[in-house]
Amino acid sequence: MGIIVIHGDNINKSFERLSYYLKSAKERNLDIRKITPSDNLSEALTSVSLFANDSLLVIEDIKRRNKKELKWVKENLNGIDNDLILYEPSQLTRTILNFFPKAKIEEFKLPKLIWKFLDEFYPRNAKNTLKLLHTIIENEAVEPIIGLINWRLLDILTFIKNPEKILYDTWRLNKLENQSKKFSQVKVARILQKLAKADYESKIGKADILTSLDLIIAIELE
After folding, report:
1. pLDDT of 120 over the 60 cut
2. Residue 42 has pLDDT above 90, yes or no
3. DSSP the chain
4. Which pLDDT score is estimated for 45?
5. Rounded distance, CA 2 to CA 102, Å?
6. How far is CA 45 from CA 24, 55, 98, in A?
7. C-alpha–C-alpha distance, residues 11 and 89, integer Å
């Protein structure tokens, strides 16, 4: 059995890597079994049908599992005969990674400039945010940036409502807390709605996604 952990804040790259493994598994005629956060982890892994030698097990969003579940997986890995992929579309902490000391870790990081852009995305900072955005898109596609803004705004919204649900390292939590103080729930919800509309209109050819994003930033972060 092989164990691979795929994680990192570069969601597009990590998903591409997961897709590569899934495509490879299909070419080998393996049965792909995905275990989502709504599934009971121990029940899913102890199911006899999952232990067939022609299966690839994929545990999604491993960060949403509690320590008790992670400990159970660590203690019962020897009973799993299949290859196992743990996929997390965000950065995993060292605490979680330590549950899988023998795993092959594949981490996909965002460029530092994109992190800076996300950190600088807040009201009364439109000029600087736009400048960073247009520097980034010299080398990166704009579409993934929309997804990253959504991800950050959802984190902010969660932090405003229930900060205990955010499981990040202390330094990152502090940054998120400072950024969240600059937003209201209403503004976050409005920007998310505008981003969704911009994304949809770009896909049907009704609007240019970069122009729409520029406008959202100029208006909402003025």
Report:
1. yes
2. no
3. --EEEEE-S-HHHHHHHHHHHHHHHHHTTPEEEEE-TTS-HHHHHH-GGGGSTTEEEEEE-GGGS-HHHHHHHHHHGGG--SEEEEE-SSPPPHHHHTT-TTSEEEE-PPPHHHHHHHHT-STT-HHHHHHHHHHHTTTS-HHHHHHHHHHHHHHHHHHHH-GGG----HHHHHHHHHHHTT--HHHHHHHHHHHHHHHHHHHTTSS-HHHHHHHHHHHHT-
4. 78
5. 9
6. 22, 12, 20
7. 5
First and final CA of the chain: distance in angstroms? Answer: 54
Once rounded to an integer, what is the mean pLDDT over residues 168-190? 92
From the list 171, 149, 17, the residue with the least C-alpha distance to 88 is: 17
- Give the number of other Cβ atoms within 10 Å of residue 209's Cβ: 18
> Residue 85 corresponds to which amino acid?
I
Q: What is the pTM of this model?
A: 0.64
